[in-house]
């Protein structure tokens, strides 16, 4: 019987695959409506951030023979050590190859950028999807003052929340909340470090809704099996941040092929998850040593929970009253009296 069910599931996935590909192509046009503010942040002519980084490396390689001696030093360092260069100031990059800061700035302009910060931004976007955990640990010293580590990390997280406030499209946020509330079923999925975000959302959604499905990040067939009944009146909430776990994107594409609305909580509309979503809710995510900083994404998820809870207040009140009674009866919390 189990083998038969697996066979049926595999047949369904195969049949859905062409639909999945077509649906993914349709998504950018659907998402564009009402999300101009978010889209403009990506840049009309830049493509995805990863493509911009790829193009920079290729462009440097192509111009190497025409470079001056100083430019070749900078170009070679970027190609060979892009993970370090992406988080260096122009002054520090210049020092690393024994050229002046102004030479580094002129190099960026030569590469077609307005200045060094624009080139650095593309390098950072390029490198953050490629850095291994060990490489991320190695570059920590370039970003965090070891003598003031606590305040340095906390201030960086504060900046990420500020950036998220500027990135978010409130209309897209409201549409996402409405889709969650009206959905027949709500599926939540996040893998790797994003799994903690997914569990946090699921914990509170379970208090508000009776139709929430937490998708466990098991093996590939197991993920699809948990999505076997997803349909056009359902919502799939995907959470994905660099280095972008492939299973999250694959699950979202399958859900989209089945007709579900896709809500992406990710770092950019240009991320692998963002480009196939109906609604993109971006949050600034960055690395702190080998660990991902998920402070801003968690704050955004908290806002989603609060917004949904306010619109479902009557249901939530009944649930919380019952829970309080159960908690008191079973001594769940410590009595501080």
Description:
A five-stranded parallel beta sheet has the order 2-1-3-4-5, sandwiched between helices. It contains 17 helices and seven strands. The chain folds into two domains: 19-35 and 166-324, Rossmann fold (3-Layer(aba) Sandwich); 49-163, Arc Repressor Mutant, subunit A, CATH 1.10.10.10. The chain has 337 residues and is α/β, with parallel strands linked by helices. Strand 1 (186-190), helix 13 (194-208) and strand 2 form a beta-alpha-beta unit. It has helices spanning 2-32, 36-42, 49-63, 69-80, 82-85, 90-97, 101-110, 116-128, 133-138, 140-143, 149-167, 170-182, 194-208, 220-226, 246-257, 295-311, 313-330; strands at residues 186-190, 212-214, 235-240, 261-266, 279-282, 286-288, 291-293.
How would you briefly describe this protein structure?
It is built from 17 helices and seven strands. It has 337 residues and is of the alpha/beta class.
CATH superfamily of the largest domain: Glucose-6-phosphate isomerase like protein, domain 1
Beta-strand content bin: 5-15%
| Order of strands, widest sheet | 2-1-3-4-5
What number of structural domains do the residues give?
2
Structural class: alpha/beta
Low-confidence stretches: 1-25, 27-50
CATH architecture heading of the largest domain? 3-Layer(aba) Sandwich
Query: How many strands appear in the DSSP assignment?
Result: 7
Q: Kindly provide the name of the CATH class of the largest domain.
A: Alpha Beta
Shape: elongated
Major sheet description = 5 strands, parallel
Query: C-alpha Rg, in Å?
Result: 23 Å
How many angstroms does the end-to-end distance come to? 56 Å
Give the topology string: H per helix, E per strand. HHHHHHHHHHHHEHEHEHEEEEHH
Task: Name the average pLDDT.
Answer: 81
């Amino acid at each position: 019987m189990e083998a038969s069910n697996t066979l049926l599931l595999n047949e369904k996935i195969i049949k859905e695959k062409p639909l999945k590909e077509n649906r993914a192509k349709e998504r950018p046009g659907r998402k564009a409506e009402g999300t101009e503010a978010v889209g403009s942040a990506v840049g009309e002519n830049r493509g995805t951030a990863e493509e911009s980084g790829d193009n920079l490396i290729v462009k440097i390689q192509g111009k190497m023979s025409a470079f001056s001696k100083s430019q070749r030093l900078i170009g070679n360092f970027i190609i060979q050590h892009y993970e370090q260069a992406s988080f260096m100031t122009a002054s520090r990059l210049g020092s690393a190859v024994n050229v002046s800061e102004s030479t580094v700035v002129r190099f960026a302009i030569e590469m077609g950028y307005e200045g060094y910060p624009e080139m650095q931004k593309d390098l950072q976007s390029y490198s953050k999807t490629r850095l291994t955990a060990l490489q991320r640990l190695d570059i920590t010293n370039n970003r965090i003052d070891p003598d003031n580590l606590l305040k340095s990390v906390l201030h960086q997280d504060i900046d990420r929340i500020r950036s998220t406030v500027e990135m978010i499209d409130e209309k897209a946020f409201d549409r996402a909340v409405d889709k969650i509330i009206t959905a027949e079923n709500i599926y939540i999925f996040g893998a790797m470090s994003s799994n903690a975000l997914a569990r946090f959302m699921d914990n509170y959604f379970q208090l508000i809704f009776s139709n929430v499905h937490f998708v466990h990040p098991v093996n590939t067939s197991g993920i699809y099996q948990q999505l076997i009944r997803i349909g056009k009146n359902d919502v799939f909430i995907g959470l994905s941040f660099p280095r972008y776990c492939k299973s999250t994107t694959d699950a979202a594409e399958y859900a989209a092929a089945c007709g579900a609305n896709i809500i992406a909580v990710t770092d950019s509309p240009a991320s692998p998850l963002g480009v196939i979503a109906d609604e993109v809710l971006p949050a600034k995510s960055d690395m702190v040593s080998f660990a991902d900083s998920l402070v801003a994404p968690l704050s955004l998820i908290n806002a989603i929970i609060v917004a949904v809870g306010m619109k479902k207040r009557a249901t939530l009140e009944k649930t919380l009253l019952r829970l309080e009674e159960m908690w008191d009866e079973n001594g769940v919390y410590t009595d501080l009296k």
